[in-house]
Amino acid sequence: MIRERILVIGASGQIGVELTLALRKMYGNNNVVASDLREENELLKGTGPYVSLDVMNKEMLHVQVIRQNITQIYLLAAILSATGEKNPNLAWHLNMQSLLNVLDIAREEKIYKVYWPSSIAVFGPTSPKQNCPQQTIIEPTTVYGISKYAGEFWCNYYYQRYQVDVRSLRYPGLISYKSAPGGGTTDYAVEIYHEALEEKQYTCFLKEDTYLPMMYMPDAIRATIELMEAPAANISIRTSYNLSSMSFSPKEIGAAIKNYIPEFTMAYEPDYRQSIADSWPQSIDDSVARNDWGWKHEYDLERMTKDMLENLRK
Ligand code: NAD
Ligand code: SER
User: Fold this and answer.
1) How many CB atoms are closer than 10 A to CB 205?
2) Per-domain boundaries in the chain
3) From CA 24, how far away is CA 256, in angstroms rounded?
4) What was the pLDDT predicted at 1?
5) What is the Cα–Cα distance from 227 to 87, expressed in whole angstroms?
6) Is the C-beta atom of 81 inside 6 A of ligand 2?
7) What residues act catalytically?
8) Which CATH architecture has domain 6-172+217-242?
């Protein structure tokens, strides 16, 4: 049996912190090496090894992979949709080159498995708005979405041509209370809980009726690990799997919060992120993930809201 040694790149980010902690629980603290350009996140301190690493520096990345005897890589470093529109060149460069560096090293070093997330942002205005299927018209209009679309096909290419076992999920907007989100269009759905508790008021940068696919972080972490643990024979999609749990609008999440904080009020000042949100589907059909490797979500808006508020109050 292989003794797993896992490298998480982008471990100080919104997903990275929780995924690193979950992997450490499964594989042992010392077998999961966290890495990031940023300082180590406070929540990771003392829980296992951390290296400061720029994923764009392929040589240094390669050295770390060999030195640490890495068998699996989780690549989470990226620039997300809203920040990407402010600096398209940087977003394209980081999102593409980081993936190519990792895939190339995985091929050379015979890395056993690679994980790289895609996003609902691969879809564009011509994709179906409701229950957007796994295979459909995909014409993204953001640089982030273009990079995810190209990335999905690089993953498929490395699997087909070099047998690199790379697996991927198209995450919806992710909501969490541990580590802050890093510049996405769906970040409002995290900010709103903080502002509801602190200010009893939130001004949303999207219109009240903007529906988007969303997911609570515990579901996203579990989906990631279940996909990575699934037998290779069950993985029929080598680009990236649609993944879904809930879909709501700012008005609906506001109403869910009001059940716990009756004095909470909302205002709306849509900005440039509105057109990004409008280009994405409102809900996702993830039946292929459910059939292939048994995906099943646990959290809906009500259950997530209760858990978010309880944990943020702590
Ligand atoms: P994040 O911005 O919170 O974290 C990304 C981390 O990568 C940061 O800690 C950052 O310091 C690090 N990083 C940036 N450049 C780096 C570099 N050159 N070298 C090493 N590290 C670097 O992002 P996240 O929300 O955790 O997203 C992780 C992945 O999941 C990304 O690929 C993102 O596109 C994808 N995703 C996220 C969401 C979401 O809602 N959070 C939804 C869909 C897809
Ligand atoms: N949450 C992400 C974003 O808004 C979706 O990939 O950019």
Assistant:
1) 19
2) 6-172+217-242, 174-214+245-313
3) 33
4) 59
5) 32
6) yes
7) 144
8) 3-Layer(aba) Sandwich (3.40)
